[in-house]
What does this fold into?
Amino acid sequence: MSHAKERFSFTNHLISATLLQGDLFPQHSRKFPDSALGTTVEAYPMLDKARLKTELSLIYENEDFQGCSGALALFQVVMENNLQDTFTETTESKSPRHGGESVAEVLRAHGVKFVFTLVGGHISPILVACEKLGIRIVDTRHEATAVFAADAVARLSCTVGVAAVTAGPGLTNTVTAVKNAQMAESPLLLIGGAAATLLQGRGALKDIDQMSLFKPLCKFCASVRTVREIVPTVRKALAVAQSGTPGPVFIELPIDTLYPFHVVEKEFAPKNTPKGLMGKITARYLKNHLSNLFAGAWENRDPSPLPVHIPQATEDEIQRCVELVSRAKKPVILLGSQATLPPTPADDVRKALESLGIPCFLGGMSRGMLGKNSLLHIRQNRRDALKDADLVLLAGTVCDFRLGYGRVLNRRSKIIAVNRDRSQLLKNSDMFWKPTVAIQGEEVQFNFFPEYIMGSTLTIYFPNVSGDAGSFLLRLSKALKGHRCPEEWPQSLKEGDYFKEKTKRAKADEKTEMHLNPLNVLHRVDELLNEDSIIVAAGGDFVGSAAYIMRPRGPLRWLDPGAFGTLGVGGGFALGAKLCRPDSEVWIIYGDGSLGYSVAEFDTFTRHKTPVIALVGNDACWSQISREQVPLLGSNVACGLAFTDYHIVADGYGGKGYLVGRQDESQLDDIIKKAQKERRERKAILLNVLIGKTNFREGSISV
It folds into this structure.
């Protein structure tokens, strides 16, 4: 934005205008206005400075021009003297290249393997160019799914996920998914098509103010105006997406910046030979606009990654935390999704936690960080543990609704808070809690692609960033080498875990009034999960139960929407996960309500040979809402669904569906194993499991 303001500032326009002010030509002929020329070329970098100076010098020395009283008179003299090319920029008009190739080159240089899309004419050159460079194009049945899939790739591959969608409604369909990525802190690049630069605001097809939509959602937004801007803009966007607090970025690419010169020229060319002065001026304006659009388009530009800036705790902050942890008798770590972000590998974070020996509660993407049966992983009685703890380490965890806005924290506890985003670091600290140490950190430059860097630099400032949780834990464990938390503390918490889980497990053996007990279904699936399985949580009530029961086997094997609580992530998350980990078993845990958002992606799973297994808890109800609405308001209005044959829908899209009811209870294990076998045979599977009601999650809230 600052670049645009500088380039088009009123002052620069006035200075540039003096170069063509006829009454100043005698003065300019005696002393060339180098300062004004420099300002003009700085404001309009597409101009060839040396060529422009030569041509202006000729104009200043010619008495015919000195009588021009304004721009129109000067234009007429230019036309009469056949000087039409005086201000034309250097353009390779015969080149068959197009802007989509520039986008693809940068993505390849950044190691991007997938671009998710729903095709549209505004973005076709990007898709074709990416395919030619070996980037896999994965087309979905809804634009939101494309963004959700890119989000999953970002989380699992520790790179930037990329989605490209067409203009107008194609982009508006992504808004929820982009907001989800923002709140989940996923580095994601959304590329959007747009109306041609000359037609924006003139009623062109799908032409809306797209920038205003995405500025509140994205860390960086840019509308490319010339082909030569594509490479530096995409490079910067990818760096910003990963720096500081990761998040989505958006680039708008007008259609005339993406297609070849000869295609765009055909659209710009007047249908008839222009007549009269205004006709000639208009034709000349269009020609100049076209020349400017492609000027310098194919000059060599470095597409390699720019440095990424990540906040790190200072040595003083680490030392203060070492002193607090070493004195603690009952410390607890609350680990959030940020602990899985680069540059620290998730396995290194796991080793650091095991070295510290501090009991951990895992949330979001950090589920599975300690494996299936770690003695340090505490799953139950979190409120009681926090009440007894003398030190709480919030490692990427936020004091929002998930922690009672901070009210669950003991005011007598020492609290260490580490978060990349300062606003999240201190959320609600003005009301319910106070950090003993809030890791502010300082920015450190990282290069995730050292083989590509060729001396390029970019400074990006993030005034509100704080500390990185993963690297903090690594440095803390090294500084505390040899020190471990008193063993009786995690042992006592684990005993409470065992007791509560045994009580809850008994609920799975109870008979429901009708159909299958959902808790028993989830326990059976959990016990049969492969060690490399990835679990996608995509629903409300049924998924809430799954979060208590199902145990990811390792780091980065659990995907949920995050704090936004978005329904509809299932198809996209599973697609991205399966592409990143083609040998892994990917399970989508659906409620029957949330399934409706992305069941059409079974077509995508079939076409792109990404076999996943969808477990649908079908209770013919939006149970998460009904549980509160009925007792509070006395009505089940809008909460009821039907026991729909979703398995037949999966069959229709080329997958394989199974209906599972009470009559199948004794064969439940066999059905699950059969689904796993057919998945290995490249079929996407949907288990439509009819479930009854339990009181397992009684008291849980949805608002």
